[in-house]
Amino acid sequence: RVPTFDGSIKLEGSDKRVLLLSGLLMATIFGSIHCMAWFFTFPTYQEQVLWRMSAIAITFTPWLCFLAGIICSLIPRVVQVVGILTIGVSVILYITARAVLLVLMFTTLRNLPSDAYKAVSWTSLVPHL
Fold this sequence. Notes:
129 residues, 65% helix, flat
């Protein structure tokens, strides 16, 4: 019988921490992949700045949510409201940054270098053909 992941499986505290930290690690790696385009050329300076800001946002907002969650669990009720607002703003920032990156990926296709339009003879690159 294959188990279903419908929430009926109860995780221990250590398992939850492992899942949380692995999710944070994957989000950080995903954001840092977008940061690799830091020095790429963009059609306009504004698009380059938007890319950089969005890449930084998707790299660090998961950690901001994680720290706000820790603070909410440790500090009294008044600060919990601030923590919850921080998490909400971070989620909105993350979604907006992902949307900006998605739009920028397609808009930068309008200004490709001339080498992108050349036909490549792939058969010349394979030695046995």
